[in-house]
Amino acid sequence: MAMNQLIEGLSDYGYNIKVLAVNSKKYFIQPDQVPAGYKKKTNIEWVYVNLSVKPFQAFLNLFSSRSYHVERFISKRFEKKLIEVLSKGKYDIIQLETIYMSPYISIIRKYSDAKVILRAHNIEHLIWERIYNTSKWRPRKIFLKHLYITLKNYEINVIEQFDAVIPISNRDALFYKNHTQKPVKVIPFGLSPEKFKNGVCDKLPENAIYTIGSMNWLPNIEGLKWFLEKCWPILSKKHPDLQFYIAGRHMPQWLTGLKIKNIVIEGEVEDASVFICNKSIAIVPLLSGSGMRIKIIESMGSGKAVVATNIGAEGLDVVNKENIFIAETPNQFVEAISFLYTHPEIVKSVGKKANKYVKKFHNSERIIESLIRFYGEI
Fold first, then answer.
1. What is the spatial distance between Cα 328 and Cα 310, in angstroms, rounded to a whole number?
2. φ, ψ of residue 195 in degrees (nearest 5)
3. Does domain 2-190+364-377 have CATH number 3.40.50.2000?
4. Which of these, 164, 261, 279, 305, is most buried using a 10 Å CB contact count?
5. Is the pLDDT of residue 76 over 90?
6. DSSP symbol at 324
7. 301 with 199: CB under 8 angstroms?
8. pLDDT at 202 over 90
9. Rounded to an integer, what distance in angstroms lies between the CA atom of residue 369 and that of residue 363?
């Protein structure tokens, strides 16, 4: 969604866009199912790259100083297609989405004189460092430590190969400014103004809690398991009528088969905005991760009260108990949700302030204009 925001935004401002994307098993796209209008707008093409973890190669990587995360993205097929694309056209800006595309910088420099920019959606090693910190099983911790240290070293060293960096949050920008003299400009995620016109829904939302997110992303699953084990038993006992809705793509079998009273597994929903609009309180119990939580911005833009961990709310300039509720422990989550559940007027008040915050700081049109100015500067 963050990538698409910039792609469509730049196109709407009259820029010619060319998208070359990795197609993978985890997020597989059938090109013939993509609308013709979108294809024309983006000139999008895909190259299949097998990103599956290969156990033997992962084991051998333990004896290497190279980042296994990055190496998985190196593909001769992708390189060949990239050369073909660069040979056919002249580009002013080539923007790489995440550091995992940075192995192709040398190819870009060889076939183009464009400025090369890193779009940093996360501080990638920080995600894995936090997963390492919350892991208990020693063999897993040994492997995770190797993963995050080699990724961190790569992430720090590769920055100098770019002409500029556009992180998604102020917090992430500090990391890059501490490791490079190259220009760094924060370009956050934004919503189109019509998506959050009034921050209200067509009908009165249910006084219920919900969470939504891709369930094949480890931090989402980790946080949800923690919430179900540590928080929900207390909440459901305290509020027997409280409903908890869980939505997202790639639901694992243990979730789809979950049979717990008042927990509704929605799976992938047709329209996330409709799902969000029909509930009152969003929960984001992230224990690891990095960057910016798009679903929090969507919920706040829809005028919802959000209860999140500090990591969940990371990258957002929000104020606890004003436009969001911050909770770290099970007791804090239970306390915050109980308070909001029994005070619908507070939910409404917090939601209005949340909507106001999104309008001010996450307006997609203003963000695109800021990005265009930055492109001009470099």
1. 7
2. -75, -20
3. yes
4. 305
5. yes
6. B
7. yes
8. no
9. 10
Radius of gyration, CA atoms only, the chain? 21
Q: Which tokens sit at 268? A: 């992938």
pTM, 2 dp: 0.83
Q: Which of 309, 250, 323, 225 is nearest to 25 (CA)?
A: 250
Report the C-alpha gap between 74 and 99 in whole angstroms.
12
**Angstrom distances, CA of residue 35 to CA of 12, 31, 40, 44, 56:** 17, 9, 9, 11, 39
Question: Which range among 175-179, 190-194, 278-282 shows the weakest confidence by mean pLDDT?
Answer: 190-194
Terminal CA-CA length for the chain: 25
Residue linked to tokens 């007791």: 331
d(CA 8, CA 19) in angstroms, rounded, equals 11
Q: 212, 272 in Cβ contact below 8 A?
A: yes
- Which residues are CB-neighbours of 81 under 8 A, at least 6 positions away? 20, 45, 47
Residue 83: how many other CB atoms lie within 10 Å: 15
For the chain, give every domain's residue range.
Answer: 2-190+364-377, 193-361
Closest CA relative to residue 265, chosen from 283, 280, 253, 282: 253
Each residue of 22-40: pLDDT tens digit? 999 888 999 999 999 999 9
The class of domain 193-361 in CATH terms is alpha beta
Q: Taking the CB of residue 140, how many other CB atoms lie within 10 A of it? A: 12
Q: Which residue has the tokens 């088969």?
A: 257
CA distances (Å), 172 to each of 95, 149, 203, 240, 277, in order?
18, 18, 38, 41, 30
